[in-house]
Amino acid sequence: MTDLPRLRPEPIPAIxxxxxxxxxxxxxxxxxxxxxxxxxxxxxxxxxAYAHYPGFYDALWTGLRPLCASRPFVEAFQDLRxxxxxxxxxxxxxxxxxxxxxxxxxxxxxxxIRDMNEVFSHGNFPYLIVASIARRLLExxxxxxxxxxxxxxxxxxxEAGVPFLxxxxxxxxxPTRALYxxxxxxxxxxxxxxxxxxxxxxxxxxxRAWVDLKKVVSGAQxxxxxxxxxxxAAAAARTLPNPGGLTSAALREAAEADATxxxxxxxxxxxxxxxxGLVTNVAYFRHQLRGE
Length: 292
Description:
The chain has one domain (20-146, 165-288). It has 12 helices and no strands.
């Protein structure tokens, strides 16, 4: 059981992500620092939405940075990734590499898709755990872990050199825009996650990958996996160390200086609800790309 039940906010709140290219000053510094600590090439929509509330975002990252740079945090998100990728095999994702080869994809192109998947397969999990902590603290609960946490030294991110390019809706042709609309409808989201916009750089690949995934996302087995991922992320949020000493009271106070607590909490609940599904979907895509 989890003391952070899986919860989809109703109605879905408006979100106001602050894109990296518009970030300035302290927020831009926070973005770059967060990417460096997470060892990722992009800011997740979740943290760009947090940045719309600058006091909240600043308090959250100031308090969580020591944890996110620690060995227990890295081990926790790596364990969560391993669990997710093992669990998703039960959905039997159909292999896709041969189909891509038949379309004319060269081995290098398929390798580039695998590299892009690896970027998200690594990077989504730190965001998920942070989102779980943020929701937990805003709801008035604390973190029960010790204050001490050894620093992680070295590199945990993949050495993937694939260019990080996104197919935005205004760049896309009509079939890709229709695919984006389908994703939002089926997943119940008001936006298209960065991951999907990156995979849509290869539209003939992503169309086939999504058609396969779409067949399972409404099933009970899929939801059981997502619920299990959520529960493990919630457990990490409760039990990880708290070397920055971040408290519920301090984060709630910072949020209320930016907006109503309910507004910020609804936004946090939205992302903490959707991220377990996102990491499950990326794991499904990863399994599709296995060797044949």
